[in-house]
Amino acid sequence: MPDVYLVIGGSGLLGRHIAKQLQDRGDNVSVLDIVQRYDDIPFYHGDISDEGVVLSVLQQCGATCIIHCASPHAKSAAPEQFWKVNVDGTKALIAASTRLGINKFVYTSSSGVVFDGSDLENIDESHPYARKPLDVYMETKVQAEKIVLAANGKDGLSTVVLRPSGIFGKVSRYSSITFCLFIHSLHSPGDRQLIAGLYATYMTGRTNIQIGNNRNLTDWTAVANVADAHVLAADRLSTPISPDAPVAGEIFFITNDEPWYFWDFTNGIWSRLDAWFPGKRQKRTVRVIPRWLGMCLGVIFEFEACIRGRKPSMTRFTITFSCATRWHNISKAKKVLGYTPRVSVEDEIDELVKVN
């Protein structure tokens, strides 16, 4: 019997790509989210932390495979929202899955669950969790991973965890992106974090400021590739490549397998925005701020923001994120899932900020 899929968070950037890939290959797929942005795939509205709601939706759509990629906005949500969605929501989904005899559960985690601020070079899935996660988003992702992995094998449920790194991309690969869609993506279904931040920096004219020496390689991953990995993981849960390559109960890093120097990537976005805004960005000498000074400034900005009751423009977390080496070994995903990145970072940047 073919699987019936329910994509949790299917209105977001990654969830949309996953749902469309499944639909395009002829699968029965539905979406569960708190906001509906598309009307071409059956949609259910609901709070995933409410097990009764989850049970009702699962019974209505007849799902046999859940792909859970819902999470609050990493930079703007309140701490309690992360615990409600990432932890309580995952618990409710797992409880409902085991109660109803769901076969497969694919969970979207983050490569950040192992990042404590120190450099990470070519690490694999054996690397331990960060002893002290850098923020509540990562802390709750760690807890959710543990919940999902502990549920593997219970009442016939097979689970798998994927850890993407630096997801970025356009709203949908099924329609031509115009700049209007690019701007729209900053507020709703597209990349509302990484690209939105880079766009804001460009518009405020701060692209000549570089923190750190730009010797830190960083993984960025095209959203279409991450979606590919999720569909592959769901397929391999029931049909592994070989008996010696189990998928159930496993963790997989997912990247483009082509790390970039951090500021080369950001400058790649900004240089393409120049085509949309000719003459807006004047050539200026790049001001390089050492990491140690950036951390000091982060403390000052955080303190000032706390006093004034607003969000800081620079934090120690953003400095750490900008300056640390973070790239991962995806040999396991290649071998066990059959995963191969099909969209390059360069091509995804071109497509994202394409002038039609």
Please tell me how large the radius of gyration is: 20 Å
Quaternary structure annotation: single chain
Instruction: State the CATH architecture of the largest domain.
Output: 3-Layer(aba) Sandwich
Tell me the fraction of residues in β-strands, as a range: 15-25%
Helix content: 40-55%
Task: Please tell me the total number of domains.
Answer: 2
User: Which residues form runs of ≥5 with pLDDT under 50?
Assistant: 173-192
Report the CATH C-level class of the largest domain: Alpha Beta
Order of helices and strands: EHEEHEHEEHEEHHEEEHEEHEHHEHH
Terminal CA distance reads 43 Å
Q: How does the helix and strand content classify structurally?
A: alpha/beta
Q: What is the CATH homology-level superfamily of the largest domain?
A: NAD(P)-binding Rossmann-like Domain
By DSSP, the count of extended strands is 15
Largest sheet: 7 strands, parallel
Mean pLDDT: 90
Question: How is the topology of this model organized?
Answer:
Blueprint: E1 4-8, H1 13-24, E2 28-33, E3 43-45, H2 51-61, E4 65-68, H3 79-100, E5 104-108, E6 120-123, H4 136-151, E7 158-164, E8 167-168, H5 179-185, H6 194-203, E9 209-211, E10 217-218, E11 221-222, H7 223-238, E12 250-254, E13 260-261, H8 262-273, E14 287-289, H9 291-308, H10 316-323, E15 326-328, H11 331-337, H12 345-352
Helix pairs in contact: 1-7, 2-3, 3-4, 6-8, 9-10
Protein name: 3-beta hydroxysteroid dehydrogenase/isomerase domain-containing protein
Pfam families: 3Beta_HSD
Family: Belongs to the 3-beta-HSD family.
